[in-house]
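tool_log.txt
---
The assistant was asked to compare two proteins side by side. It first ran the structure predictor on the initial sequence, then on the second. Raw inputs and outputs are pasted verbatim so the downstream comparison step can read them without reformatting.
(1)
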Amino acid sequence: MSAKVIVPSEDVDTSVQLPVNVTNRRPRIGVMGGTFDPIHHGHLVAASEVQHLFHLDEVIFVPTGISSFKQDRDVTLPEHRYLMAVIATASNTRFSVSRVDIDRPGVTYTVDTLKDLSRMHPEAELFFITGADVLPQILSWKDSGDLWELATFIGVTRPGHAIDVSSLPKGTTKIVEVPAMAISSTDIRERVLRGAPIWYLVPDDVVQHIRKYGLYDVSGKIGKLEK
C-alpha cells in the first residue's frame, strides 16, 4: 500500500519541500484533528503516509471536543474517543495524542486548535491533516483567513476521488491519495450496531475498548467510564 501526492488542480501546490539539512530546520509537526468516533486504520495509515511524505517529526492526533459540524447526532464521550486514540497510536513513537480540544470549553474550532498548538510548539511548522472532502469548506470556517498563517493544510483522499479546491489560496493546500481512506467511522459504528465484526478495521485493542464499554451497540449507549 502506498500513497502519493497528486495534482488536483493548477491552483493547488502539491510539491513537497523537503529539508536540505534536517539538523538545522524547524521541527515539522502534523496535526490530525477529527472526531475519531472511533479511530480506525484509515486514520493511522493516512497519518503514517503523510508523516513519511512530508518528513514530519511528529503527528499529534487531536480528538474534537464538541464538533461544530456534528451537533445533530450523539457523539461518544470525549474521554472514550481520547482513550481509543491513545490505544491506537501507542505503538508508534512518532504519534501522540493531545487533549487540547476536549479540555477546552465550548465548541471546537480548527483555528483555536492551531493557535493553542502554535503556542505549545512556537518553533514548529504545523501541517494540518484532514479529509480532502473537507477542504472546499474551509472558507466557511471560523476565522478562516487566519488558518493559512498557522499551518499548511494536507487533504487526504482515496484514489480516483477528485476534489475541487480551486477556491482556496494558492500554495496553502496539498493533496495526498491513501487507499486505506476507504474505511469510515460511520460504517464502523453501523457495523457494531448490527452485530457485524470490525476486526482489522480498527486496532485490536480499540475493538476490545468498544466491546468493554458497549460503544455504538443496540442499547444506544455512548458509554460511561468506570470510576
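(2)
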Amino acid sequence: MATTSPPPEIDDPPTRQIEPVEDHQVIEEFWEPDTGATTAEYAITTLAACGFAALLVVVLKSEPIKELITGVISSALGLGS
C-alpha cells in the first residue's frame, strides 16, 4: 500500500519568498522603449500606403487591365467563349 504525505496545513508558510518591488521596477519590466512606431513613422507609413493606393487605382483604371479582369470574371462565371 502506498503511503501519502498529509495535506499541507492552512497555516503553513509559503514555500517561496515574495520580494517587494518598487513601482519603477514594474514599469521598467513591462515597458520597452521603441516598441511601436513613432508619429513620424506612422506619417511615412500612411503616405506610402496612400501612394500605393493611388498607383493601384491608376493601374486598375487602365483599359488593358479592365479587359483582363472582365475576361477573368467572365471565364469564372462561364460566360466566356
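---
observation on (2): The first helix runs from residue 23 to 30. The radius of gyration is 32 Å.
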